[in-house]
Amino acid sequence: MVAMAVLLKKYSLPAIPAIIIILMVMIPVSANGTGEDVNMEDNWRFPGEFEEQDAVWIGWLSKEYISGYYTDDVFLQIVRELEQNVHTIICVPDENQKKHVEEVLHKNNVPMDNISFYEQKFTMLYWRDFGPIFVVNNNGEKRINDFNFNCWGYFRASDTQSLLMEKIDRDIAKHLGIESVMTRITSEGGDREFNGRGTLLVTEACEFQRNPNVAREEIEDEFKRLFGATNIIWLKKGTVEDDPYDSSALPGPGGVGIAYRSASANNHMDEYCRFVSPDTILLAEVTEEEAADDLIAAENRRRMEENYEILKNSVDQDGNPFNIVRMPIPDMIYFIANPTDEAYFGLSTFYNSRDGTSFPVGDPVNIVPAESYCNFLITNNLVLGQKYYMEGMGMPESLKEKDNKAEEILMSLFPDRKVVMINTIPINFGGGGIHCSTQQEPKAKSE
Fold first, then answer.
1. Cα radius of gyration (the chain)
2. Tally of domains in the chain
3. Is the pTM of this model over 0.70?
4. What does the pLDDT look like over 4-38, one tens digit per residue?
């Protein structure tokens, strides 16, 4: 997921010599971190998120994209729930942030026995997209797949910010003493959904945008090599709200005026479609009634129904149809971004709308956070979901009803797990949510 922090080059980083970039690009896709050939016969796979996990990695940056909305408040709730169910690895960019996080946890009486820290420079919240992507094999081993990264398609892969994040997965592999396997493909964890049995869901609008000169077959071959995928299903597009943040303006409150996306991941799967078991898929839905009253809802309905038709006519790796459950899309909510806000700075500096909409630099603007009921995290005995309604904020009652409906759906899909809904608006301003900010480390088992 893309944080607006992608656009804020806060860290002064050394220039990367051109020859190093050239050498990185020249590394063959079949090489691993040691330059040796990858063993293709060890049955490597990416487990379903609903399978047992050893740990959850979470990137914790203390931000205030919009005044009064603190990411610390969200991460505190997430970690409080996680540490009771799974070893929680909090990723921080430096020692000062580590001390700050420790102070927040101690102040709020969060036990530290099941928490550890990993320190490495980074500037964005969303570790699922540039952090470690673990796969396991039948020998009880783990390795990390090392994808290229270009800041969700907004920067070049050779940009300093892209290079800073791109190396994190390799560095963690070294830290853990496990193998990393490199690929030239650019892809983020938020656009890949696995059922753990060989089926993979990806989004055309995302993967083709990241890899404009790579054929579909080449991308599929890499997913098969890296994840053991045997059945790849391509959906078309995500929601309008998750289109590139500068692709167009959005309707303002009540359809009056305009609004801007605070940020977006640029068509990620985990914003609209998820595996909740090997044979069950959760897909976002817009009703006919909603579509009749709102142009954005109408386009979202068109996209989701197109994706539904694809899924309805698809089968799993064994030729069996999927059980498809529908999840509502939250009502769009609006916040005022002022020139002093971090979210505003990114928009005013880099916004160059493709529909010709200009940004009124110096004036407050309406912005919408990246909302989704599909951006939940599944871990041991626990599901962390997202909710949005806040009393006294003028939000529609229908949003409160949808929050409750989303919770009911998750509880019905995960009857043996605790479901906790968290108001994630402070981190949604950066373009992602709970799922984007975390990455599970699966348990490796020997046969």
1. 21
2. 1
3. yes
4. 444 443 333 444 444 433 334 334 333 344 333 44
